[in-house]
Amino acid sequence: MRKRLLLAQANFFSAIYQYNDTSGQRMPWVTGLAPTETLDRYGITGGMVPWNALRSILYGGAPPGLVEFGCKVVGCAAPEDNRPAANTTGGGESAAGGGSDAGDGGGAYASAPAAAPREVLARAKFVIAADGFFSRVRRVAGDGSAPVFQRSVRWLANVPQADLVSGRIPAPAAIKLGTDPTALISSHVWLPASLENLTAQPTRGFLMYSAGTDEASGSEGGGGGARMIWTLFTRVETLEAAGEAYPMRAPAAGGDTVAAAAEGGTTALETVQLSNTTGPRAHERAVLMSAHLPPDVRAIIAATEPERVLEFGSHIHSPDSYVPGAWTDGRGLLLVGDAAHTGRADGQGANLALEDAAVLGALVRQHGLGPETFRVWEAARMQRARDILHDPTPEGSLRFPLIYSATFEPLWCPLKLAGPGGPLPAEVAAEVQAAVAGGGLDKGREVVLAWSRREVRRIVEARVAGRVWVESVAPPPGVVRMR
Ligand SMILES: Cc1cc2nc3c(=O)[nH]c(=O)nc-3n(C[C@H](O)[C@H](O)[C@H](O)COP(=O)(O)OP(=O)(O)OC[C@H]3O[C@@H](n4cnc5c(N)ncnc54)[C@H](O)[C@@H]3O)c2cc1C
């Protein structure tokens, strides 16, 4: 049921349009997207899922008590005697520590709820760190590396579609709101678009696309209808040339003592912490950085409510960091998701994080939990993550086949799904039970997978019913596929 609900909340774009970012002129090429055709071709199709829906489903699927909110890991250390945290009982333990961000390697694996600060020491045989792109666990207990600032600054904001339709927020003429039925379900990209400068990834851009649906807002109690997201990005140098410092806030006196790479006098940690800002100043700076855009595009940025605008710096783990041992210490520590491989915000980070978990689950089931499994997992994931996040080809010809060929060992048991209270309809559950009785669990899995494919198709078809299909027009050779 949960999976169906998630897919039912997905947005399927109709097309991707490009515009020149000073004249506003629409480029003659367009990427038409037909999710049902993609389903026919690959068995899967891409969809944009609201962040909160994904979170709710993941938390809802976890056993009660597994996720504890309001706690912060302030340190993490391997046991002092260097015993490997192996598949034996009583393995690793953490040393007590200070709870600072000093990164001296002596911190405990501790949590401190904000309301009543209190440190808790937890001893764990294994630590699987999924603490995101600036993973503290990686910095203090792993290889110590942090994602590298790309000298690119981004603003992310959302505007209700209702405001665009009513004219309260002016929509750019280029997206033809009144005449193009696909306008609000397409992705619109303003770039310095000409053959000359679209042969490399652009250093500035403005994107608008829909995210969330009426259905999604309703089911999550948001009640605000569908939204359009806009993203603006530019180089730090451009921001500085306009008289704005980066990061926006100055580091506090005394500064942070994290041993991270200095970047123009500011540590990487300071840069990331001080750059994530929402509100009027972030909005002001976005308006300033939109000066090159056509007036009707600038108008959306200017009319967006400042509280809906987030400014952040783009940080990634460079491809050079993908070396054996970077994601596991060969003992009890493993890094997954962004903690291991933060890439550019190009729509694959969350997918890869979910894949990480699925592959780890399958390997643990096969080999048990332990350092050897962690090593096997790292070897299995590293190449794929690098090829997808750092594909050097202009067309993405390395990454797209990998994305569309994703298959994973099912972690579920068909009999469990077919049991009382399971998600399968009664007739499918009966079919699964008969298949398992006649041919074993594999036969039961086949029945579940066949049903699942039918359900996916049914939901996708319902989501795109009545659409006007947009024909793709190929760009001239050499034009990069922006990501
Ligand atoms: C603005 C933006 C837009 C993006 N858009 C997309 C997109 O469209 N599609 C896509 O696939 N990806 C997108 N990404 C990337 C995607 O969000 C990440 O790749 C994905 O969330 C990684 O999942 P994760 O679980 O590894 O880390 P996260 O989702 O970052 O989760 C890490 C968790 O750890 C917690 N945490 C961190 N430090 C501590 C600590 N010390 N103690 C306790 N908890 C801690 C955090 O609070 C957080 O809940 C986007 C990223 C950004 C910044």
TrEMBL record:
Ranges annotated as biased composition (Gly residues): 89-108
Coiled-coil segments, which residues?
A: none
- List the Gene3D superfamilies hit by this protein, alphabetically: FAD/NAD(P)-binding domain
Q: Where is this region: Disordered?
A: 85-109
Keyword Lipid metabolism belongs to the record: no
Respond yes or no to whether keyword Transferase is given for this record: no
Q: Which UniProt keywords apply?
A: Monooxygenase, Oxidoreductase
GO MF terms listed in the record are: monooxygenase activity
Name listed for the protein in its UniProt record:
FAD-binding domain-containing protein
Organism, as annotated:
Gonium pectorale (Green alga)
Its lineage reads: Eukaryota, Viridiplantae, Chlorophyta, core chlorophytes, Chlorophyceae
